[in-house]
Design a protein that fits this description.
11-stranded antiparallel sheet; 8 helices; alpha+beta; 290 residues; 32% strand; 3 domains
Length: 290
């Protein structure tokens, strides 16, 4: 039945932390169905099947989801799928209406890293058509973010102002297609028609090869902008003297994002999502630089 799958070529890429076993995939699929309401039998289920020098795992089933705008227990029946592609030390995740469990992410996956995404997508031959930027300042009065679009942004942006902004995401035109990337999440997509599972897996393998290439040349245009620094790369003898939280970005990630994050508290052995008033109080406390 997986032959019926048609999905966009867009995935989240991760670095593999530990070897993924058949048992790990089997446990993941069982947990996915346990965490949904009234799940159906899988429409398809594949556990670490070989595809050349890669392996893929996939599951698809339907379940009931509450209707957000109706009270009284109204539900919609939705179909979701999840497809994992493993190749060497990198994992690609395709998904719709399903997601990896937190325990699986913590045990097996790490972020791919912004620099790898840039080397793979923002290459020397890339023409930037869309760019989302965030200002490095935490001032309440400064312009915090902006999105720019042009046929060729390199000819439309003054290089002198680039160092004040950090790229959040971009769309580029290359000889092999139009790509979009969000380095912070590891998401990479290409503008193309929906494809069957074999084309999706093959495309993921091609992107993984680009992500593995440590010698790729990044566009000089994107190097003009400020860079994120991973905390793990900071020397142990460096001590912070100032701490501030970008509370507007945090609020956007909680309330506005297509895939929002959740603030939760542990109650016994379960996790409960905080209410909006509780989240507002936390954000207000964080909005005080230290």
């Amino acid at each position: 039945m997986i032959e019926q799958l048609r999905a966009p070529r867009g995935a989240y890429f991760f670095r593999r932390r530990a070897r993924i076993t058949n048992e790990a995939i089997r446990t993941l699929f069982v947990q996915l169905q346990r965490e949904t309401v009234n799940p159906s039998r899988p429409i398809f289920r594949v556990e670490r099947a070989k595809f050349g020098d890669a392996r893929y795992s996939a599951i698809c089933f339907s379940y009931e989801r509450p209707v957000s705008f109706l009270e009284g227990g109204a539900t919609d029946r939705v179909h979701g799928f999840l497809l994992l592609v493993e190749k060497d030390e990198i994992v690609a995740l395709f998904k719709s209406a399903l997601d990896l469990t937190g325990s699986f992410r913590r045990a097996y996956l790490d972020p791919i890293g912004r620099s790898r995404v840039e080397r793979a997508i923002a290459r020397h031959d890339a023409v930037f058509e869309r760019l989302s930027l965030r200002n490095m300042t935490t001032s309440r009065f400064a312009l915090r973010s902006k999105t720019l679009e042009a046929r060729d942004l390199e000819n439309a942006i003054a290089a002198s102002s680039a160092s004040r902004y950090i790229p959040q995401g971009y769309r580029v035109r290359r000889p092999d297609g139009s790509y979009s990337a969000t380095p912070s999440t590891g998401r990479i997509a290409i503008r193309a028609d929906k494809a069957d599972y074999s084309a999706i897996v093959e495309w993921a393998c091609q992107i993984i090869e680009l992500l593995k290439d440590d010698n790729g040349e990044t566009s000089a245009f994107i190097r003009n902008f400020a860079r994120f620094v991973d905390l793990s790369l900071i020397s142990a003898d460096v001590f912070p003297t100032f701490f501030a939280v970008d509370t507007m970005a945090l609020a956007d990630a909680i309330f506005e994002a297509e895939e929002p994050i959740r603030l939760v508290r542990q109650v016994g052995e379960t996790w409960q999502q905080l209410s909006k008033s509780e989240i507002d109080a936390i954000i207000a406390d964080l909005d005080q630089p230290l």
